[in-house]
Amino acid sequence: MTSDAPELTEIAAQLDTVAAATTRLLDAVSALTDADLVEPSLLPGWTRGHVLAHTARNADSLVNLLLWARTGIETPQYASAFLRDADIEAGAPRPLREQFEDLSAASERWLALARVMPAESWQAIVRNRQGGELPASRVLWMRLLEVEIHHVDLNVGYTPQDWPAAFVARLLPQAVADLSAKPGTGFTVTATDTGYTGAVGNPETEITGPAAALAAWMIGRSPGDDLTGDLPDLAAWK
């Protein structure tokens, strides 16, 4: 048991981080109205209602991965891409009260299950919806990404500049790694506030700016107007 203590402490800390981010998101949602939900989000083609429905169903999908890790019984994140999209479309038009209660309940289901996961289950290998294999402990980060990024997508005044520094410090290197795995223009990013530097592909140009601004641009959440350099077109993360 002693050897598991540091890992469990880190798991608990990550869960507290997700819980705090979820509270911020729910507080923002509670201030909206039914009329607000049919307004466009920052994601092309999606209303705020779409974003909320997706964020709730994502929590349920990550419950599936935790159950897989805990029981050893393969449980796909989503039954199919079609059903994933259909659930989002079906949930998007609901009134605020239903959206809030659904998101709150789904988030709590995921957190409650994660808090009672046996230590050994976090090392179990599961697969995300793209088919990539990962340890169950990675699911914690997957949920934090959904909550923090889609909070911005709601277009309710929460911006990448509001992301916690620790979140940005992990997101930016991941964005660099993800883009490096795809063919395309190479570039170097340098964060003017943290000193982080990372290279994508074969660097042909340098792009500089605050770490949060760089991360937001690299995942398609900003046009990069607050950055310096020759910016290539990048696809959005959804």
Summarize the structure in words.
This protein has 238 residues and is mainly alpha-helical. It has two domains: 2-158, Four Helix Bundle (Hemerythrin (Met), subunit A) (Up-down Bundle); 168-238, 2-Layer Sandwich (Nonspecific Lipid-transfer Protein, Chain A), CATH 3.30.1050. Helix content is 53%, strand content 8%. It contains eight helices and five strands, in the order H-H-H-H-H-E-E-H-H-E-E-E-H. The protein has helices spanning 5-30, 34-37, 48-71, 81-91, 96-115, 138-153, 165-180, 211-218, and strands at residues 125-127, 133-135, 187-191, 197-200, 206-209. The strands form two sheets. It has a three-stranded mixed beta sheet. The protein has a two-stranded antiparallel ribbon with strand order 1-2. A hairpin with a 5-residue loop joins strand 3 and strand 4.
| Main beta-sheet strand count, sense and barrel state | 3 strands, mixed
CATH class of the largest domain: Mainly Alpha
Name the average pLDDT: 93
Q: Give the H and E element order.
A: HHHHHEEHHEEEH
Give the full name of the CATH homologous superfamily of the largest domain.
dinb family like domain
Terminal CA distance reads 39 Å
The tally of strands reads 5
Helix coverage percent of residues?
40-55%
- Number of contiguous helices: 8
Write out the strand line-up for the largest beta sheet, numbering strands in chain order.
Answer: 4-3-5
Strand content: 5-15%
Which outline best applies? globular
- Total count of domains: 2
- Give the second-level CATH assignment, the architecture of the largest domain: Up-down Bundle
Q: Unreliable runs, pLDDT <50, ≥5 residues?
A: 1-6
Q: From the helix content, strand content and strand pairing, which structural class follows?
A: mainly alpha
